[in-house]
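[Q] Does anyone have a clean structure-token version of this?
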Amino acid sequence: MREANLNPLNKQVAVVTGAGRGIGAAIARKLAALGAVVILCGRKRDPLESTAAGIRRDGGQAEVLPCDVTDLSSVEAAAQQIDKTHGRADILVNNAGIGGFGGPLHEMPPESWDAVLNTNLRGVYYCIRSFAPMMVRAKNGHIINISSLAGKNPLPNGAAYAASKWGLNGLSYSVAEELRTHNIRVSVVCPGSVDTELSPHTGKDSKKMLRPEDVAHVVAMLVTQAPQSFVSEILLRPTMKP
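[A] Here you go.
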């Protein structure tokens, strides 16, 4: 009987943005457990170091690379460093995001709108612009964008966040068509309510909400698919409504 491959991502280089906490940290841990060398990106070093320390304690490989996805020069510098050090980027998980649930759109300050759209949408564009050329060169790669069910449904008092995620979904579908001829699979994951610090989830039962590990499990499924197919979109819901 053939042994199962315990390291299906053996030595693949996986870049995860927003990897300091929550969903990003869970995804980083999962990919490391599958054998990837995980590059942890985020604005603040300390949370990234904490995630990396946990991965290393479990026998995985993790590197910390501070990066601000809203700053193109910062993202380009990170990509250049990874190319110089590893010569490849096999997996890119665009997870970095912020909420925007402060009230109706007509009361939202323009600077708050800019912060949400620049992180959740423009940041993904910057990362794809910087990392996709490495994948095109290698004729292989996975890009996974972490969206939300708010990109499918109305979200009162969160219109900017919803707009960023509806935009991210459209971006993902279109880029998937652009890159599939280069053997690069682009997928978007739309989770429902996840128990993280991103938003207060007022009135919801946190015990019924999704966990960051649930999203990480889906990402693991995507990057270990058989090569002749790809899943373009996953909608992830809790079993019980919170």
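[Q] Thanks! Anything notable?
[A] DSSP finds six helices and seven strands in the chain.
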